[in-house]
Design brief:
7-stranded antiparallel beta sheet, single chain, 233 residues
């Protein structure tokens, strides 16, 4: 017997590597489990706890400020306008006593002022009112009205009739939509009410205006320049 026959045949090296590769592909991937050191995990937890504590400190610091400054109510900001005091200051320059209609707490004034008339040439006393139904009516009074000025203040609304208020007949100008005006010439002044309120609210304010005008002395005619005397021939 030959020596070569006693030795087993050597395995094919290429076949063995292919078998190992197939086994590796058949085996499922083992999940990777990250390992965090105990000290690193402790530091991470400490950072999270520190952030939570800092957030709570900020909230507690700002909470008193929020409580001391409550949110405004739904009615919104209402300025405190002393109409009577402003009217007294305007009386000397107006040449008449400005009306100060008293409507109790129903109509809220949001401005009162004397306008010198530098733009229109007609000085005026003006008050703005917010009505009980959250509409607006502006009051304008002057003793130097002219047709052009009245058209401007009433926004060229057409005359649609009259409206009785406070025992007086007011001229009514109505757009048929939202805007309307009421005009009254009374005791030496012209008073214009204009805005977006309904006729009932206009009439209520107009009655208070007439009552205030009746309590004031009649306005004197505005001073006019007199021509200089010409020498006789």
């Amino acid at each position: 017997m030959s020596e070569t026959q006693d030795k087993p045949a050597a395995e094919n090296p290429s076949g063995a590597s292919a078998a190992k590769q197939n086994d590796a592909q058949a085996a499922p991937d083992a999940p990777y489990k990250p390992v965090i050191a105990a000290k690193a995990a402790k530091r991470a937890n400490a950072s999270v706890i520190g952030m939570v504590i800092a957030l709570l400190v900020c909230v507690l610091a700002f909470l008193p400020i929020v409580l001391m400054n409550p949110a405004p109510k739904g009615e919104g900001f209402r300025p405190d306008v002393d109409v009577a005091a402003i009217a007294r200051n305007a009386t000397d320059v107006a040449g008449f006593t400005p009306v100060t209609p008293d409507t109790g707490d129903t109509f809220k004034p949001n401005y009162a002022r004397w306008e010198s008339g530098s733009g229109s040439g007609v000085p005026t006393w003006e008050i703005g009112f917010l009505t009980p139904k959250e509409n607006f009516i502006g009051l304008t009074q002057t003793n130097q009205a002219n047709p052009t000025w009245v058209l401007q203040k009433t926004e060229n609304l057409p005359v649609t009739g009259t409206r009785s208020a406070g025992g007086q007949e007011w001229e009514l100008r109505d757009s048929g939509k939202e805007k309307r005006s009421m005009v009254l010439e009374y005791r030496g002044t012209t008073i214009v009410l204009n805005g977006t309120a309904n006729l009932e609210e206009f009439a209520t304010l107009a009655a208070a205006v007439v009552k205030s005008a009746e309590q004031a002395p009649p306005a004197s005619a505005p001073a006019t320049a007199t021509p200089s005397a010409q020498p006789s021939a």
